[in-house]
Amino acid sequence: MNRQLFSFLLVLFNIAFAKANLQQEDSTLLIKRKVYSATRVATSPVIDGKPFEAFWNKIPVAKNFVMREPRNGEPERDTHKTKVKIAYDDNALYVAGYMYDNEPERILRQFSQRDNVFVQADLFEFHINTYNNQINQTRFFATSGNALGDAIVEGDRQDFSFNVVFLSESTIDENGWYVEMEIPYRTLRFPENEVQDWSFQVVRRIRHLNEDYSYNFIDITTGNQTQYDALLTGVENIDPPLRLNLYPFSQVVYNVFDGEEELTFSAGMDLKYGISDAFTLDATLIPDFGQVAFDRVELNLGPFEQTFGENRAFFIEGADLFSKGDIFFSRRIGQTPTGAGRIETLDNEDIIDNPSTANLLNALKFTGRTDGGLGIGVLNAITERTEATIRNSESGATRNVLTEPLTNYNMLVLDQQYGNNSSIALSNASTLRNGSFTDANVTALELNHNNKKASDNYRGLLQMSNRFTPDGTETGYAGEAQWRRTTGKWRPRLGAFWVGDSYNPNDLGRQFQTNYLTLASDLSYLQQTQQGIFNYYEIELRVRHRRALTPSFHTGSDITLNPFFATVERFSFGGDFQYNTEQKDQFESRIPGQVVRYAPSYYMGGFISSDYRKKFAIDARAGYFSRIDDPETSYDYRLSPRYRFSDEFLLVYTYQWRKNNNRLSYVTRTDDGSNSILSLRNTHTVENRISGTYNFNNRHALSLSFRNNWSRANFSREFEELTNDGTTTESDFALQDDENPDANFNVWNLDFSYRWRFAPGSEATFLYRNAANNFDKQGQISYVDSVSNLFDNPIRHNFSLRITYFLDVNQARSWFSSNS
């Protein structure tokens, strides 16, 4: 089988290179860039979404938009012309958009809140690149439902965690809809030059026609869209004011749990200071993350820790630089103390307090980019010393046990951009713990190179970790190398990914599997413009060959086919088909160097997604997995209907069901700890989720978020012992009376909130939250009985009110001067 797979890989490589070479002569990137000259003004317009005042009469018009999708390159419809005007002064850019429509009653206008701009509403996008480097953009969005949003972009990565304070208003009349924006310079970073060399793009999305247009033509078949900006001239001699913004907040929280009540008050402040026009300092002083979204906790029976995405705004916003090198995972900051699960107690002692997080004392970020394209990012955070409290049940005396020392986390990134959409970055992450605890330092060098024709991308990554333990230094290495074609219909990709057995970035990063080498080959066929009933389709073939590094042996290979189709009527469907060779799992045994063998397997699945423009739409997915000549099987499906009752009210329900039978799984170790005991395991999971939003307008909204996740696991009592070659033999192992590997886990979370954006950058949020969870050893319990048992446990009720106010210090100085 291995020889056959390698032969197939070689054939696939040859096909990929042949197709790529056939396209080489036609892949030269030729961009015709429009030029628009912005107008300096002495006064500012009223931002009310009605750009008809005398202010705009003298401003030149940018027009003649070109279709981006679905018929790339066609001129705009005569019935749907788009015009844009741009002006500036020493404080801000001013943008007016005129989106004409001969059938204004058909303009979709679903209401939504900040950054939720891809709803069923028309969309206006203004992209500005203050470095004119064809890589970076800051994007500002406005919808026909008068919602706004912002994002930063590097190449093909768009990050909506970026949040700044700008003004945007939109209106609709009998001729179409209109947008006005005021984009203060405090929201942008740019070189300190007398004459600015900027570029820009404007995009219009017409939902009811399912068409997108751009001011400067974007060839969607070649390169990244950031490479197709128009030139923005005329911006010169600007003298921006002081960039110092304060975000003071206060919060009151009322908790009720198991008959106990607690009322707490807190206050703090975030700060954003423009050190120069190009660099910004962000700091959070006395942080409070009491209203962050709940984590989607699941029953975890695997060999790796369960991690969750970042929900804290300070660490989410503008984190693009810190993703370089793939060595930074912000959830490590303030994580569960490393010693919280290893507390040793005496027979007469109880743990009465064991904090689940280490409190963050403060954090700051320094980010920006020089005129020469050098991006600099520094992040530093400090968490406080954390202790658990243990009480002697006989004497009543208490003692404290250190679970996490005072810890400093630091991340440094230097990212040099060059050429055509290319960059090389050096990243370093360090963790310093007070006292004789483990410290760590991880360094990465990342190259992302695109050739001048925008036809090929090359990526390289080298990583090195050092952990300084009381017993010495542990050093490990990892890396990857990739090549992919980025233009044309045939797009091959080749890659190699390796991680040494000693590589460990987990003090401030995230890496679970070690000691492996993966060789990857992909070949995709893309149809990106309308053809017949399809707006877009892609058929992708993937092959993976996996090996252990030390010692070297084959751990498994797979081949996958992924077709995806999207019709003119916005109905999407596709499939997943995969075959896996025999696998040698290095991690299920929980013993280094000891593998568990799994038989060859296959997976078949498919999905559909209907037109979201209709009031009722549905997403559905189903799949089936089976091992060959082995009893393990798995089934899963997910249904997610949604109904838009009105432009104000949307409700989405998701039901997910999974069942896995007869999986050979780890139970425990033998008495001497030298080997693993396994048995067949059945698992069953059901999840219900509801999300709903009622938007009174773009400043007031009610939101509901509900999740109930249930999982059970039942292990066969016919145990097997692992042998050296990864197979198993029958075992006479027997569980003790107090031992039971079965599991029943149920978690319930409900958030109900009211948000009021009472001024730009300022918000009041009232949140009601309740939560309950239960874990026991009932492996045969039904879902209904598990939910019933869940509510036999105490439910936590949480009420909180948080008010954040945006204060522009420069504007405040103007107020005081006026009052004086």
TrEMBL record:
Residues 47-194 form the Carbohydrate-binding domain. One of its GO terms (molecular function) is carbohydrate binding. InterPro entries: Carb-bd_dom_fam9, DUF5916. Keywords: Hydrolase, Signal. Residues 240-816 form the DUF5916 domain. Residues 1-18 form the signal peptide. This is Hydrolase. It comes from Nonlabens spongiae.
